[in-house]
Amino acid sequence: MDKQFLQAVNEWILDDPDPVSAAQLQNWVDTSNELELKTSFNGFLEFGTAGLRGPVRPGPSGMNRAVVARTSAGIVAYMKARALTSVVIGRDARHGSYEFALEAAEIFSGAGLTTVVLSHPLPTPVLAYATNELGCDVGIMVTASHNPPQDNGLKVYLGGTVDSITYRGSQITSPTDSLIAQEISKVVSAKNLPRANNWSTVDDQLVVNYISQTAQLAKNPGTLKIVYTAMHGVGKETLLAVFKKAGFDLPILVDAQAEPDPNFPTVAFPNPEEPGAMDLAIEMAQKTNADLVIGTDPDADRCAVAVKDPKIGWRILHGDELGAVFAHVISQRNTSGVFANSIVSSTVVKKIAEKHSIKFQEVLTGFKWISKVNNLSFGYEEALGYCVDPLTVNDKDGISAAIFIAQIASDLARNSKTILDLLDEIWNTYGYHATEQISIRLKDLSQVKELLNSLRKNPPQKIAGRQVTLLEDLSKPKDGLPPTDGLRMWLEGSIRIIIRPSGTEPKLKCYIEVIEINKEKAVEILNQLRPPLKELLS
């Protein structure tokens, strides 16, 4: 192996505060395991608008105590330059989450900042709530959300107004991410950073307050039989408490997925969007003759809903379908504030807002942008993220979405209707909006960029025999949005296609929307588009 490379490895080993990861690296050095070493030393784990996220492994390219320490020190420098003095830290139950939360707490408290830590693994929305409720300047959540089992990460929230951006307990946006990344790059040692253990633990009354406020979304509890899966994550305890506080019967649990398990043994990917992830919950619904299925992802900031379709049986609602339901119901109750959704979400919410004279704003993909909309009253993204109670949590919240959809389904049932009946009413009013996402999983992020650049150089003229009437490079926007990596195409007829990289995984995503008066016609067009689009992405 190259001597300069080995020197860098040995310097990292000597500076690693974790003897376990240091010993693993030393073993790879002793056995000349160049593959593992180069995987671990392929650049410092990138810090972006989702914070950090990557595989738990030694070295600068993985999630480990040394990387968390250096990242925390970079955030400290960013905070001190802006006179920010307080931080709250939460965690989920993934591999390393406990150790990483303690590592961060030591660094923040060692830097003289007021540091508080949530007492046990909790949903990400509770951390977002705590950041705002406690008046903290910064919130740190140790989680990789719905990523594969081997991953972990840090999400960063800001509490007030920083650099002229009002956050109110929401995720950082550009250019904050690059400013923090610059500070991280200046940290030369993890082991020599000042540390302390004088942080305090947040009183559980804060969680009780979150539960009470969220339960208020349900004013008239029903008696529906609801199945719930926590998908091996941390949602169960909080969700059950919210349902109990609201007066609902407790949901039927999918026992095999009810307790936190960082290995996620029953799912290929712990993401309710992925095929098969909700299968056990649907099986339980069939066995118990349930009325509704609700699932949250491992950190419970996303919510999935399955309903019984009289034509095809149980099916999971698309994120856009649930977004339309929420927007319709909220528009009947409140016409103040602003509705918002990401550019890859359906255009139906904009039409609902316009019909009820509600202000609407379209933003870039990611809840970090939705949360920055002033006077937000409802926001959503098609990837199962919903903000139905922005005054409590100014971020996506799977717990509040779950209790809200339970209340909506109960209200409909009293009138002998279902969520699907309500959707039919929406489509009859605004036209049928058929949406679908195609995801291509790749080995690494570089392949994603190569594919996108190839599409920029050789854009399609036709797709499924339909002319591309407009192609927009989202990295050079003309509609007032900030630049982002991706392409947006319009095809003859009411067809929109957006291609962009995933913000958290090596995946290329394609979002399709077809609008037709007739549902069958829209589905037919989707079926025609799917094969050529998959070929285009491959």
Please tell me the overall pLDDT: 95
CATH topology of the largest domain: Alpha-D-Glucose-1,6-Bisphosphate, Chain A, domain 3
Instruction: Output the CATH homologous superfamily of the largest domain.
Output: Alpha-D-Glucose-1,6-Bisphosphate, subunit A, domain 3
Structural class, from secondary structure content?
alpha/beta
Q: How much beta, percentage-wise?
A: 15-25%
Q: Care to count the β-strands?
A: 24
- Give the terminus-to-terminus CA distance: 35 Å
Q: Which percent range fits the helix content?
A: 25-40%
Uncertain regions spanning at least 5 consecutive residues = none
Profile the largest sheet. 7 strands, mixed
Name the shape in a single word: globular
Number of helices: 17
Provide the gyration radius in Å.
Answer: 23 Å
Total domain modules: 3
Instruction: Assign the CATH architecture of the largest domain.
Output: 3-Layer(aba) Sandwich
CATH class of the largest domain: Alpha Beta
